[in-house]
## 1
Amino acid sequence: DGGITQSPKYLFRKEGQNVTLSCEQNLNHDAMYWYRQDPGQGLRLIYYSQIVNDFQKGDIAEGYSVSREKKESFPLTVTSAQKNPTAFYLCASSIGARAYNEQFFGPGTRLTVL
Amino acid sequence: AQSVTQLDSQVPVFEEAPVELRCNYSSSVSVYLFWYVQYPNQGLQLLLKYLSGSTLVKGINGFEAEFNKSQTSFHLRKPSVHISDTAEYFCAVSGSNYQLIWGAGTKLIIKP
């Protein structure tokens, strides 16, 4: 089955630790995205990548980092510099990076900082 | 800057009743408009989208939406809801730099 997988589903982290969230897609999509979702708010874009070895900051990139070494993988690292990292993180992909392209979402990772 | 407003954070409705979820946007240029649905503890799934052409757009699960350029609205409707429609619904509009601008979401609560 084609789709997007995110792991782990739940993640607990101590303050001051970096943590990496995994996102893999087998849809052969060029573009990939990371969003953060907080209760009562819409999705906020952290980073996006239009093609392998290229990525751009979204609206809330501070305290996060990404890499895009392979087409199918777009891991997100939440660093200790992120002041309030507890949130639901969603990864998405689309066939291209144009605004009219449908985005396909993974099931999400819920990160809790203890 | 472009923005999306979903006027209701929650909409309670009885099963088999009609429902309308409201979405307004601000933009001075042509836009693409989307409705996504999120079931509890899951990712989002596209319900429908408006790119061009007919202003009445039909989507999955019996939902439809109407693009109204003069009102800058893209309200989502369903004539008869089912308990399985319980979810959060997000409106989004195309922004600059290939990004989508998202509304805050509306939780649809189906009462038996």
## 2
Amino acid sequence: EAAVTQSPRSKVAVTGGKVTLSCHQTNNHDYMYWYRQDTGHGLRLIHYSYVADSTEKGDIPDGYKASRPSQENFSLILELASLSQTAVYFCASSDATDREMGENTLYFGAGTRLSVL
Amino acid sequence: AQSVTQPDARVTVSEGASLQLRCKYSSSGTPYLFWYVQYPRQGLQLLLKYYSGDPVVQGVNGFEAEFSKSNSSFHLRKASVHWSDSAVYFCVLSGFMLSGSFNKLTFGAGTRLAVCP
């Protein structure tokens, strides 16, 4: 069974609308991440969280908010969606001990394809 | 600052041929290096990782990678590819931010591998 589940798998949103992407993990991992993938580019970190009720900014946080209501759930929120936010979004989790040792293996969801029109 | 360069955006090989996907990295500290694979409509999955020891590391499905500190490289290889290896391959570098407080992952742009019958 998939240990990191994202919903929806795809979404079409209108410019200026609100979009919420959800992620659920059953890995019992402390760390969760939201990445954005654009064609021809590697993944870029938007937000991450290492404990429930706390989130941290990644490399490209502008225009995005995140919410971690529990260890298992991590949401990405676009309050005012824009054309430039059309991309594939990946959620991932990792184990705190691995991360602190430098290994930081990530376990990814299948992604959400977001199109903003 | 750390960076990862995958110079080949796209590689096409015939089934049964050998494969090398190139990766060059830049890191101020001791790097953790990873190769992830992304199959169509799926999230990224770990192929292999390297931190220290034998510079040749074995991964899943017959993949291996060789670390070279002198060349700042971490090339991925496979002796005989199968059509099912068609995917996008990402080289990833793990390192600490200057503050030492976060284990930052830097993704290469990816190499799309097409295996022809």
